[in-house]
């Protein structure tokens, strides 16, 4: 290792004010939203303003062998941007430029912009950037790219990677590389940009992205169906999702509804076991099909509206579910996914786990994708309750894998699920993953201790 101090070198080479070491300021950059993870203590935070700042940071980090944790807005739910001891936390929050090319239907963005800011900027041209995590007003586009974020409209419009035409990435040695470009079709060589989408800061730092846009969709028609039984709601999802592609198909069970009712009353009573919200931007026929499927599956009440504001009341309530449940106490947020036909089995299994471990587990989900967020709640002051919650969390992961599913549909592996990744990948895919990681980050300084 070279003589000297990495922080002094960063301060010498980066613009004034880019490097924070004041413990009170650094504290704001330690956590993400995986509240059960205890982060480490960074030695400094770098607030990059341009690609060159990122290059300098990674070049010096490599020279001194110091770990780098890249951070967007810190809304991640898996500890991906949580600090580790002695790291440099590299924040992209000041990288905020955007240019929209309406003729090419693309936007070129820096990573620090919020998802909502990208949506608003392209909407001025009558265009739409579809990926819409529930956190879209508070998460960065860089974080979305690095986690391959999903959301509510992904059942029809796909996830973040489906909108990435090109990337600029800074590699661990400080070199910047452009991958892909602005063309809609491009099969020249390996699709390296996709390797970085969803790589959670373990392979390089995304400093710019060229995103594909769509025309603004038509206004939504919405269906809200109440079920006495949550597994019946799962059956309705299976029927709908195997027959059509709604613009959104979201679910909340009774405990999640109750948590939202406390904050934003919708007038849904405790006798309702589950709420299924379906949306269509095609028209009334699709909504009628969904309503009929729900009635046949046992819905006790189905409400249909073509008023976008009324529809948004239901979807808005669904988006609030995680923060509302978090108000009730400590929560381990699951993010498992299963093939569409296995949805009822997964929901039933979550109920079994909740009973076996005496732990309340409200369930919400991007039901049309088979991506569910069982919210394992517990009393953090009670060690046995904490232990039971951890066991329940693992049991749900194992249940999803046994059903042919995934340990994470959109939140990423991060610290939270690092120990489960091998079980999903198996030995050969794990070896491939490690080979890629080593090829791109031979010292292992990019987000170490996370998943790779
Ligand atoms: C209430 C709530 C609801 C949510 N709903 C959804 C949802 O519906 N769908 C969904 O997918 N997620 C959801 N999330 C999770 C979270 O918002 C997403 O994972 C989001 O993409 C994270 O963005 P961020 O800017 O906060 O990233 P951070 O949390 O800062 O970082 C996330 C990961 O990306 C890496 N990273 C960040 N920027 C870069 C970069 N420029 N280059 C390389 N690596 C980078 C970090 O190292 C880390 O591993 C929700 C979170 C909350 C709190």
Question: How are the SSEs placed, and which strands pair?
Answer:
Blueprint (H helix, E strand, L loop, with lengths): L5 H8 L5 E2 L2 H5 L16 E4 L3 H14 L3 E4 L16 E4 L6 E4 L4 E4 L5 H9 L3 E2 L12 H7 L6 H4 L6 E7 L5 E5 L11 H5 L8 E8 L1 E2 L5 E7 L2 H12 L6 E6 H10 L10 E7 L3 H14 L3 E5 L2 H12 L1 H6 L3 E4 L9 H14 L6 E4 L4 E8 L4 H20 L18 H20 L12
Parallel strand pairs: 2-4, 3-4
Antiparallel strand pairs: 1-2, 5-6, 6-10, 7-11, 8-9, 8-10, 12-14, 12-15, 13-14, 13-17, 16-18, 17-18
Q: Biggest sheet, open or closed, and with what strands and sense?
A: 7 strands, antiparallel
The percent range for helix content is 25-40%
Reported CATH architecture of the largest domain? 2-Layer Sandwich
Distance between the termini: 24 Å
Structural class: alpha+beta
- Alpha-carbon Rg, integer: 22 Å
Give the low-pLDDT segments. Answer: none
Q: What do the pLDDT scores average to?
A: 95
Given the structure, what is the number of helices? 15
Number of domains: 4
- Overall geometry comes to globular
Q: How many strand elements?
A: 18
Small-molecule binders here are: flavin-adenine dinucleotide
**CATH first level of the largest domain: which class?**
Alpha Beta
**What percent strand?**
15-25%
Look up the CATH topology of the largest domain.
Uridine Diphospho-n-acetylenolpyruvylglucosamine Reductase, domain 3
């Amino acid at each position: 290792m070279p003589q000297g101090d990495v922080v002094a070198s960063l301060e010498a080479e980066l613009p004034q004010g880019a490097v924070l070491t004041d413990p009170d300021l650094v504290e704001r950059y330690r956590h993400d939203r995986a509240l059960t993870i205890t982060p480490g203590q960074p030695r400094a935070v770098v607030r990059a303003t341009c690609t060159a700042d990122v290059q300098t940071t990674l070049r010096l980090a490599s020279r001194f062998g110091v770990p780098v944790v890249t951070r967007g807005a810190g809304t991640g739910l898996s500890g991906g941007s949580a600090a580790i001891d002695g790291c440099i936390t590299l924040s992209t929050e000041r990288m905020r430029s955007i240019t929209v090319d309406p003729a090419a239907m693309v936007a070129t963005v820096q990573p620090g912009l919020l998802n909502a800011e990208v949506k608003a900027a392209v909407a001025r041209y009558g265009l739409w950037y579809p990926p819409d995590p529930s956190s879209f007003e508070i998460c960065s586009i860089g974080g979305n790219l690095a986690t391959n974020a999903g959301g509510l409209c992904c059942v029809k419009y796909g996830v973040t990677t489906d909108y990435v035409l090109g990337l600029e990435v800074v590699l661990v040695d400080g070199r910047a590389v452009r991958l892909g470009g602005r063309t809609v079709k491009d099969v020249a060589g390996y699709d390296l940009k996709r390797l970085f989408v969803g790589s959670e800061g373990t392979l390089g730092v995304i400093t710019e992205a060229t995103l594909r846009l769509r025309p603004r969709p038509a206004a939504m028609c919405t269906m809200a169906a109440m079920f006495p039984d949550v597994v019946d709601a799962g059956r309705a999802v299976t029927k709908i999702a195997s027959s059509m592609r709604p613009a959104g198909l979201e679910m909340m069970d009774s405990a999640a509804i109750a948590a939202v009712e406390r904050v934003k009353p919708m007038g849904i009573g405790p006798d309702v076991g589950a709420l299924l919200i379906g949306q269509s931007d095609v028209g009334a026929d699709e909504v009628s099909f969904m309503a009929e499927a729900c009635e046949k599956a046992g819905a006790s009440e189905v409400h249909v509206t073509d008023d976008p504001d009324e529809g948004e009341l239901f979807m808005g309530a669904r988006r609030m579910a995680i923060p509302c449940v978090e108000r009730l106490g400590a929560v381990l947020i699951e993010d498992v996914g299963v093939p569409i036909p296995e949805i009822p089995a997964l929901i039933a299994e979550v109920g079994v786990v909740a009973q076996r471990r005496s732990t309340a587990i409200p369930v919400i989900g991007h039901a049309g994708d088979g991506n569910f967020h069982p919210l394992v709640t517990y009393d953090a002051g009670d060690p046995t309750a904490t232990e039971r919650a951890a066991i329940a969390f693992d049991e749900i992961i194992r249940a999803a894998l046994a059903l042919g599913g995934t340990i994470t549909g959109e939140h990423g592996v991060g610290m939270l699920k690092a120990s489960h990744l091998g079980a999903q990948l198996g030995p050969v895919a794990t070896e491939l993953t490690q080979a890629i990681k080593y090829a791109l980050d031979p010292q292992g300084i990019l987000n170490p201790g996370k998943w790779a």
